[in-house]
């Protein structure tokens, strides 16, 4: 009830915001969402990362779509409440990138 309603990013503000998460790409197929694949040393590292992200995601009430096999985590971010990209996606992507930087292959 105190959660701000997420607003879809405008075409004008997207380039500068996406430039802050250069390893993320728009998904193919016309869906308004971004994706990135992370590779870790092993499953323990991948699942540790996912656990840390899960705690933040729950706090944000912003949940990733993700797929894990062994050391690979494929992630898609979109905001269902605005049917597209919002600042929540940019912010969660940045948090994920920061966490990822704390692991080493
Ligand atoms: C009520 C609840 O907070 C909302 O439905 C949240 C939950 N998690 C969410 N996650 C994502 N990715 N997008 C949303 O719009 C969203 N909405």
Automatic annotation (TrEMBL):
Protein's GO biological process: tetrahydrobiopterin biosynthetic process
Give the Enzyme Commission number: 4.2.1.96
Alphabetical UniProt keywords:
Lyase, Signal
Q: Please name the top-level EC class of this enzyme.
A: lyase
- Please verify whether the record's keywords include RNA-binding: no
UniProt entry tagged with the keyword Signal: yes
Which chemical reaction does it catalyze? (4aS,6R)-4a-hydroxy-L-erythro-5,6,7,8-tetrahydrobiopterin = (6R)-L-erythro-6,7-dihydrobiopterin + H2O
Q: What GO annotations for molecular function exist for this entry?
A: 4-alpha-hydroxytetrahydrobiopterin dehydratase activity
Record-stated family: Belongs to the pterin-4-alpha-carbinolamine dehydratase family.
Q: What's the protein name?
A: 4a-hydroxytetrahydrobiopterin dehydratase
Give the source species.
Answer: Cavenderia fasciculata
Q: Give the shown range, full length included.
A: 24 to 128 of 128
């Amino acid at each position: 009830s105190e959660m701000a309603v997420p607003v879809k990013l405008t075409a004008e503000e997207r380039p500068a915001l996406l430039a802050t998460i250069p390893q993320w790409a728009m998904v193919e197929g016309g869906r308004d969402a971004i994706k990135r694949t992370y590779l870790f040393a092993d499953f323990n590292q991948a699942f540790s990362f996912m656990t840390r992200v899960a705690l933040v995601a729950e706090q944000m009430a912003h949940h990733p779509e993700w797929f894990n096999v062994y050391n690979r985590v494929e992630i898609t971010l979109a905001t269902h409440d605005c049917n597209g990209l919002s600042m929540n996606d940019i912010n969660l992507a940045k948090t994920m990138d920061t966490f990822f930087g704390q692991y080493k292959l």
